[in-house]
Amino acid sequence: MNITLPNVAALLAGLLAVVAVAGRGRTLGRGMFAAGMAALAVESYLAGRSAAAFAPTEAAFWQEWRLLVMAVLPGLWSLFSLCYSRGNHLEFVRRWWVWITLSVIGPLLLAFLYQDGLVLAIPPEAATGRYVTGLGPAGKALHVFALLSWVFVLLNLERTFRTAVGTMRWRIKFAVVGLALLFGTRVYCSSQAFLYSAVATAHVSINACALILACVLIVISVVRTRTFEIDVYPSQTLLYNSLTILLAGLYLLVVGVMAKWIEAWGGDGSFPLTAALVLVALVGLGLLGLSDRVRLRLRRFVSRHLHRPLHDYRRLWSAFSERTATLVDRTEFGQAAVRLISETYEALSVSIWLVDEARGTLMWGASTFWSEDKAGEALAKAGPTEPVVGALRDHPGPFDFDRTNADWADTLRRLQPDQFGKGGGRFAVPLRANGELLGVITAGDRVSGLPFEGQDLDLLKCMADQIGATFLNQRLSRRLLESKQMEAFQAMSTFFVHDLKNAASTLSLTLGNLRVHFDNPEFRQDALRAIGRTSDRINALVGRLALLRQGLELKLAEASLNDVVQAALQSMEDGAASVELKLDDVPRTRLDAGQMQRVVVNFLMNAREASGPEGHIQVRTARRNGWITLAVTDDGCGMSPEFIRQNLFRPFQTTKSRGLGIGLFQAKVIVEAHRGRIEVESMPGRGTTFRILLPTEDASL
Q1: Could you give the CA distance from residue 60 to residue 119 in angstroms, rounded to a whole number?
Q2: CB neighbours of residue 252 within 10 Å
Q3: Residue 86 φ then ψ, to 5°
Q4: In what order do the strands lie in the sheet with 347-355?
Q5: DSSP state letter for 350
Q6: SS3 of 432, please?
Q7: Which of 428, 431, 427 is nearest to 466 (CA)?
Q8: Which one-letter DSSP state was computed for residue 383?
Q9: Is 94 helix (H, G, I), strand (E, B) or coil?
């Protein structure tokens, strides 16, 4: 076999590894790329030596060394795929640390601990020229491990490419296609090696061709963009609608059928050349499918010759509504908006700059070109942006700021670099809502240099109005939330200060009298009891406030609601003396006895305070229509229907002169956490009934 292809592939991969190490910007992704390319270079050289060997034992010797080097590839490239062009790569490394550890240690253990089981020399009488060496159990297991790793790498590359938009996607497109070609080829070769328990001679040429093409595409990517990595921030959620798994299966099927067809018609000798041509065709088809320019020209052809509108407004508006309907965070909404504009106009550079209300300057909102950190640096270098804000108020619609000679237009041009030089012009459209300037959208670097024209500008203005209205609604919602939070804080502070003031007055009065009656032992004892009660009141106050910020955690266990009532009465001083009990035989159910006891105590204390010392309180339990009920009835002052409807279960709403209005709010939270509910019956001057309804075990099934 001619070993030129493997040697050329090894040379190119080695050169790329050296360039990656020598280049500026040392990152984890770049380091893994350099190490991975160096390992691929060595592996390609050893594979070529093995395929060119004359004796089976010599071929097995070189193939064994090749598999030892191959054992380091899964770990290196798995880690690279998690780091490449990801600004948040450390999050993914921490999340996938188990797989990284396994992909590093697993293949090395197979290769070095079971080295004798890696390869099997094919006897001369059985050799047909189709296979280099046979694979032992460890060699087959190593190829399975490699196959899983290559699919993992492809999944991560797809996620990175999908997350990148606009200029970011354009920068990494060729590199991602090249790497996808490289590891897609290895998916096929590793699967074939496992199925046939041998390394085919043709696969050496296929892997070499794929490595050469991948190196060429990566070089093209670096030359055309002058960068190897960018910063995108993929989501931590799973990658839905992934094409990688589907394509991996289809690839194995199609290429397997192709191999059989070539074997039947052209013989083994034609397979490497045919495979190389197929790989080149696949690369061209992939690049054509990813070309923004081709898609835009096709859409314009349909619009021009079939008399359709340039933009499908119904689809665009549906997509805008679907993507942004649930987004309440300003940054997430902005990123969705710039992504949609970028896809609609095939404009690779789209940014949203918002007006800082406090300073009247521009700040970063979202971008397909700038990350937040880079945008901050660009704003610092662009100069003062107050004149830009002032000038934008005079522009009601989209305008080409390349045709404006004012100084403020230079600031906009520095914030919207012209990446291609012939990108169809750079446009800006102010974001307005309710007559207020909220920011500006800048767009440029349109593929094929097509300018923004009539329909484009009309749609851009319409989208800007909708985006501006959403930004204004989000701003008003934040203000309303802050106002509600301040209102709640003020209400809580009022009650808290009131109780603290009473406690402080009690302590001050006690200390004042203590100076006069200190020699009286009985007075000292009374003073100590008063100080103790005041301390208990303060601790209880702090404890009740702490309940509002603590998460409710139920400790469910089988218990009787009657036992909970008895425990609540025993925890109160002289609790059973004035309470009438009518406890029916109710079934046991799963509940948090401690939390439910707190609810019963709260109801009993409210009933006692409402009815007074001479009042009558009744506690009744019963079973009704699949529910266990607990009713606490008093004959006190009662409540108005309006107060029950609007204020009863809201925190900091109370009719007591000394209370925070927290108890009933907390009781409602506890009961609802048990999948129950609270009912209230009350009339002014006639008393109140609080009724708890809890589901039985039978009802919960």
Answers
A1: 6
A2: 17
A3: -115, 120
A4: 362-367, 347-355, 436-446, 427-433, 399-400
A5: E
A6: strand
A7: 431
A8: -
A9: helix
Q: What does the pLDDT average to over 47-70?
A: 86
Contact (CB, 8 A) for 284 and 213: no
Q: How far apart are CA 232 and CA 179, in angstroms?
A: 18
CATH number of the structural domain 313-480: 3.30.450.40
The domain limits of the chain are 4-254, 313-480, 494-546, 557-700
Lay out the sheet containing 131-135: strands in order across.
119-120, 131-135, 198-200
CA distances from 664 to 180, 484, 568 (A): 61, 20, 16
pTM: 0.47
590 - beta bridge partners?
558
Q: Answer yes or no: CATH 1.10.260 is held by domain 4-254.
A: no
Q: Report pLDDT digits (tens) over 205-217.
A: 888 888 998 899 8
For the chain, counts of helices (H) and of strands (E): 24, 15
Distance CA(158)–CA(176), nearest Å, equals: 8
Provide the token pair at 590: 């799963």
What is the rounded distance in angstroms from the CA atom of residue 234 to the CA atom of residue 232? 6
SS3 312: coil
pLDDT, tens digit, for every residue of 164-183? 766 677 778 888 888 888 88
> Do 41 and 17 form a contact (C-beta atoms < 8 A)?
yes
Tokens in use for 117?
């089981």
By DSSP bridging, strand 579-583 and strand 617-624 are: parallel
336/344 Cα distance (integer angstroms): 12
For 146-158, how does the pLDDT look when each residue is reduced to its tens digit (9 = 90+)?
888 888 888 888 8
Q: Is the dihedral of CA 253, 258, 259, 264 positive or negative?
A: positive
Interacting residues of 671 by C-beta distance below 8 A, sequence separation 6+: 599, 677, 678, 692, 694
Superfamily of domain 557-700: Histidine kinase-like ATPase, C-terminal domain (3.30.565.10)
